[in-house]
Task: inverse folding
């Protein structure tokens, strides 16, 4: 059983930090504006969303077959495929490959799945170093933190904080808050490591079954360095990131890059189909792909939750979420924060650890409206809430019902009973209005920032009767 995530405590701490809240608010407004500028024609955007949704649903409908086809074609191309059911298995596979290659350091491109399995900690425990080469990931690694956003890991930090961090952690670096100089410092440190390491690791945005191709999009070029300079390249991804055909890729990439960073296309678009071939001067001698389950089969089994796997990890739902934009990613205590995190984390960590996350939503629907592949996020969150309360039918998640509180359940049952019986409801209303002065001033979390709820002096029925009498 995983330890419960202290979401409410984390959120209160962030809400009490006005600097952090202002920083997140400004960053999210910026990202929302950039995304909106990329989709000026709403009709065209809806058509593209519908196409993206259809591609992802088609791919998921054929997922078992596509995974077998992907493995066969990758193997034919010379890429070694490994299957991991759990984070522990995935980490051990990568450790074994690294040791076999004689490596003592893994230089990593951006990969949220490697964060999901906590690869850095596993490598360190095995005596192998891990160095993040994505600038945002490098910053949070130096700070000993987790990413706070799946696209921009260090979005919670100001340039002054980064400047102090570099001056403290990077040998021979003086304090400077010039963004250009900070980027150059990071590049200089990382380029030296690229030349020396034997193993590079990356994520995968999309895997194409019919060609056995791994696609990776990025803006910094560090991903390309990780996949070409070291002798061994290891890619890791979830089992859901597969499509059947090459023609399925362009619509998804058009949605991903515009929704994530407000770009028509990212700076680098990498296609990896094999290790270095005979006669080629560069590229890795070995390429490995680790396909991770970690709760994804559980999502796939339940048709009401399967749409979660449509996600292309763009982060748009987070950028538009009124909860995330006020508290940021670290408050969630999970690898994937925001709406997407609330959907996937219960499968990865269990409802016992994440029961507070599924209710950390206003259900305003903004996340579902901006999702580029039309995941019905509010509907899925409601289903997970029912699972948490133990009231959902069908397939049950582990620790279903762990969010159920006996007193709260009794109160709702009592209310349902009163509401279903008109006579009892009117008797309740009569006494509630007459005894309104006894309403407690403290009403749980509601009164932390709101006035106490208090019955009106008259019920609606009484006011209507009085109005009719006057007329």
Result:
């Amino acid at each position: 059983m995983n330890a419960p995530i202290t979401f409410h405590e984390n959120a209160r701490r962030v809400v009490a930090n006005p600097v952090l809240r202002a920083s997140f608010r400004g960053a999210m407004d910026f990202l929302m504006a950039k995304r909106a500028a990329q989709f000026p024609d709403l009709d065209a955007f809806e058509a593209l969303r519908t196409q993206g949704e259809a591609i992802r649903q088609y791919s998921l409908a054929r997922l078992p077959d596509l995974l077998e086809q992907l493995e066969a074609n990758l193997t034919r191309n010379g890429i070694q495929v490994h299957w991991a059911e759990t984070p522990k298995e995935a980490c051990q596979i990568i450790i074994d490959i690294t040791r076999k290659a004689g490596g003592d350091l893994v230089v990593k491109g951006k990969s949220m799945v490697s964060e999901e399995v906590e690869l850095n900690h596993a490598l360190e425990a095995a005596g192998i170093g891990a160095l993040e080469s994505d600038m945002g990931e490098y910053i949070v690694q130096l700070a000993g933190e987790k990413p706070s956003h799946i696209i921009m890991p260090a979005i919670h930090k100001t340039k002054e904080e980064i400047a102090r961090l570099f001056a403290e952690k990077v040998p021979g670096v003086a304090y400077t808050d010039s963004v250009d100089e900070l980027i150059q410092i990071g590049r200089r440190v990382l380029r030296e490591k690229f030349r020396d390491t034997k193993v590079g690791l990356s994520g995968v945005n999309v895997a194409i079954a019919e060609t056995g191709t791994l696609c990776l999009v990025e803006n910094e070029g560090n991903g390309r360095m990780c996949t070409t300079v070291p002798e061994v390249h290891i890619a890791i991804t979830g089992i859901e990131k597969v499509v059947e055909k090459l023609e399925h890729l362009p619509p998804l990439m058009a949605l991903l890059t515009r929704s994530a960073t407000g770009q028509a296309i990212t700076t680098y678009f990498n296609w990896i189909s094999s290790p270095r071939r005979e006669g080629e001067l560069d590229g890795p001698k070995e390429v490995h792909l680790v396909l991770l389950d970690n709760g994804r089969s559980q999502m796939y089994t339940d048709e009401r939750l399967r749409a979660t796997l449509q996600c292309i990890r763009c982060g748009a739902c987070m950028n538009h979420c009124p909860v995330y934009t006020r508290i940021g990613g670290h408050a969630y205590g999970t690898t994937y924060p925001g709406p997407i995190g609330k959907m996937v984390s219960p499968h990865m960590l269990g409802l016992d650890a994440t029961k507070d996350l599924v209710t950390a939503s206003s259900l305003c629907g903004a996340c579902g409206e901006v999702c580029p592949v039309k995941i019905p996020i509010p509907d899925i969150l409601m289903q997970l809430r029912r699972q948490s309360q133990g009231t959902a039918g069908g397939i049950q998640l582990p620790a279903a019902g762990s969010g159920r509180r006996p007193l709260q359940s009794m109160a709702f049952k009592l209310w349902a009973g009163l509401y279903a019986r008109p006579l009892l409801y009117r008797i309740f209303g009569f006494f509630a209005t007459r005894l309104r002065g006894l309403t407690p001033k403290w009403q749980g979390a509601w009164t932390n920032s709101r006035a106490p709820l208090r019955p009106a002096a008259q019920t609606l029925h009484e006011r209507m009767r009085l109005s009719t009498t006057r007329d």
The first strand starts at residue 80 and ends at 84. The two ends are 65 Å apart (CA to CA). DSSP finds 22 helices and ten strands in the chain.
